[in-house]
UniProtKB/TrEMBL annotation:
It comes from the Bacteria. SUPFAM superfamilies: S-adenosyl-L-methionine-dependent methyltransferases. Its EC number is 2.1.1.266. GO terms for molecular function: 23S rRNA (adenine(2030)-N(6))-methyltransferase activity. This is Ribosomal RNA large subunit methyltransferase J. The lineage of its organism: Bacteria, Pseudomonadati, Pseudomonadota, Alphaproteobacteria, Rhodobacterales. Pfam families: RsmJ. InterPro entries: RlmJ, SAM-dependent_MTases_sf. Monomer. The active site is at residue 160. Specifically methylates the adenine in position 2030 of 23S rRNA. The keyword Metal-binding does not apply.
Length: 258
């Protein structure tokens, strides 16, 4: 069983990019009075405490969401601010929503959600806040392939692996190709880390070759601590909603000042 637990990294600079774009997409997709499906392959626990020992140990949230709020990176009307404010109203000022609770903020009664999480501790925590969704304790890619194309057919899939296993980088393009063939109208969003050894680069090159019309957005930032290998993050979005590129470039400009 993999050991990764996102509580150490919740609200960091990578989360901020990913969640700002995710919230923007969900806000846009739910403007239309048509039902949609929302799927996640690696949902995590869905709710994090930024005053907890895990977050305090790394300090990554202070450099991420805490700084972003202090410096007005997210305008008051930004979709992520709405989700964050709701979660903090319910769970306290140090709460931070993972992607499942960000999705919950936007999803309507007619929408369908499927969340996969294999880690037993994370899945147990997810079950406490994930009552709005169908929960799957299984491999997320297997779940996505079994469900896609979902009903409703319109919707979004978030793929956010931990990348603990180096083989993930080789496998992701194959998984996405299979899912995209089955669900050619779905918005398929992949998050990935940018590492000092560039091990993500062959994966990104393969994705760009296979899906030339997709949106690619990358940001760079200082390592969380000396010797830390992650120095940026990326989002690769197949069938990006109209206007997403403008939001992605705005975020990139903010990170370029770091």
């Amino acid at each position: 069983m993999l050991s990764y637990q996102h509580a150490y990294h919740a609200g960091n600079l990578a989360d901020l990019q990913k969640h700002a774009l995710l919230a923007w997409m969900l806000d846009y997709l739910t403007l239309k009075p048509k039902p949609l499906s929302y799927l996640e392959t690696h949902a995590g626990r869905g709710l994090y405490d930024l005053s907890g020992p895990e977050s305090e140990k790394t300090g990554e949230a202070r450099a991420g969401i805490t700084r972003a709020l202090a410096e007005d990176w997210l305008p008051a009307d930004h979709p992520l601010r709405g989700a964050l404010d709701q979660v903090r109203d319910l769970h306290g000022p140090d709460a931070y929503p993972g992607s499942p609770l960000i999705a919950r903020y936007f999803l309507r009664p007619e929408d369908e959600a499927h969340l996969a999480e294999l880690h037993p501790t994370e899945h147990e925590a997810l079950s406490r806040i994930g009552g709005f969704a169908h929960l799957h304790r299984q491999d997320g890619f297997a779940m996505a392939k079994a469900i896609c194309p979902p009903t409703p057919r319109r919707g979004l899939l978030l793929i956010d692996p931990s990348y603990e296993v180096k083989a993930d980088y080789d496998a992701v393009p194959r998984h996405i190709a299979q899912i995209a063939r089955k669900w050619n109208v779905g918005v398929i969003a992949l998050w990935y880390p940018i590492l000092t050894d560039d091990r993500q680069k062959p994966m990104v090159d393969a994705l760009r070759r296979d899906h030339p019309q997709a949106l690619l957005s990358e940001v760079r930032f200082p390592p969380a601590r000396p010797g830390h290998g992650m120095v940026g993050s990326g989002m690769f979005v197949i069938n990006p909603p109209f206007g997403l590129e403008d939001e992605a470039r705005r975020i990139e400009r903010l990170y370029a000042r770091l």
